[in-house]
Specification:
Elements: E1 2-5, E2 8-11, H1 12-21, H2 27-43, H3 55-78, H4 84-105, H5 111-138, H6 143-164, H7 168-186, H8 194-213, H9 220-238, H10 248-263, H11 266-287, H12 291-315, H13 317-323
Helix pairs in contact: 3-4, 3-5, 4-5, 5-6, 5-7, 6-7, 7-8, 7-9, 8-9, 9-10, 9-11, 10-11, 10-13, 11-12
Length: about 325
């Protein structure tokens, strides 16, 4: 923990010494504060963010990118000539190696290497999910069964890696896997159902929001962003089938905004406002044929959005709620 004093940055230990010397704290109270800070540091999710990125971390990312491009080129040039087992291996083996690399990097003391390990795990999860799709295709599965199996494998891998190390990339992996799974559920019908896919994603997002606010899903900031996007985008995409589902984005966005005010989360507010704005644009372009009327409505919406932003900037209800 770093605090500012007199224009300079001081550590918490320096402040404790000053307060103890001034008689504000006794040694017993200072030691309790030190113990509390040590316990808090150990209980924080592992993110590896204590230091900024360095050249070694950049080289790790470059190596991952180069290897990924190599896999893409190999698949693109030799795919038709490969046996089924070789197709699975050319995607699956790099995925397993990426997971092993991530595990190895996470054992190193440098925070940059830890972050690189999390990125390697994310890449490994993507590759192994792709290997699942290749396996299903080689076995002659139906397209919707391949999508479902790939979504399930991606979700299980993302959750397992998050349990091992709850970090930003793993939270993003959970969000991507949930989106894949919702697409797979929407594809189970004879014709793709945006309603099923969108509502499934919004439900997963709602469950995720509950987990975040109960402290079960961390780190909090990326988790809030992922679940807010899942709720609003899920409700918005459900309306692609038109009919009553078009109103879902307004209900879901209003709920996300209410959650922002209640829990003091700015990212919820941004997602909710974006959802309502997108829903209004979609509704107008679908149901208003007269161009002048549509233009006037868009002007009115712009003015309304400016008014809302001005209100939020002036009163910042999430800050007031968080402080109270």
């Amino acid at each position: 923990m770093r605090l500012t004093y007199g224009g300079s940055v001081a550590s918490s230990e320096e402040h404790l010494e000053r307060w103890r010397a001034a008689g504000i704290l006794d040694e017993a109270a200072a030691e309790r504060i030190r113990a509390f800070e040590r316990d808090s540091a150990r209980s924080q999710p592992e993110t590896g963010d204590r230091e900024g990125p360095g050249i070694l971390e950049a080289l790790i990312y470059l190596g991952l990118a180069v290897a990924a491009v190599g896999v893409v080129i190999l698949v693109g040039t030799s795919w038709e000539d490969l046996e089924d087992w070789a197709r699975i291996a050319v995607v699956g083996v790099p995925g397993v190696l990426a997971l092993a690399l991530g595990a190895g990097l996470r054992t190193l003391p440098e925070p940059g290497m830890v972050r690189g390990g999390h990125i390697a795990w994310l890449a490994g999860g993507v590759l192994l999910s792709g290997a699942t799709a290749v396996t299903g295709d080689s076995a002659g599965w139906r397209a919707d069964d391949i999508q479902l199996a790939t979504g399930l494998v991606a979700t299980i891998l993302a959750l397992a890696l998050w349990v091992l190390a709850p970090a930003h990339p793993q939270v993003l992996g959970i969000g991507g896997a949930a989106y894949m799974l919702s697409i797979a559920l929407g594809g189970r019908s004879d014709e793709f159902s945006f309603l099923v896919a969108g509502i499934s994603l919004a439900i997963v997002g709602g469950a995720g929001a509950l987990a975040v606010e109960r402290g079960w899903l961390e780190p909090q900031l990326p988790a809030r962003a992922v679940v807010a996007a899942a709720i609003t985008w899920g409700a918005f995409s459900a309306g692609f089938d038109e009919g009553w589902a078009e109103s879902l984005v307004f209900v879901a966005s209003a709920a996300v905004i209410a959650l922002s005010v209640w829990r003091g989360g700015l990212v919820y507010m941004l997602a909710g406002v974006a959802g309502i704005f997108g829903g209004l644009i979609s509704t107008i372009t679908r149901h208003v044929d007269e161009e002048t009327t549509a233009a006037l409505l868009l002007i009115l919406m712009g003015a309304l959005l400016i008014a809302v932003v001005t209100f939020l900037a002036r009163f910042r209800p999430w800050v007031r709620t968080a402080v109270s």
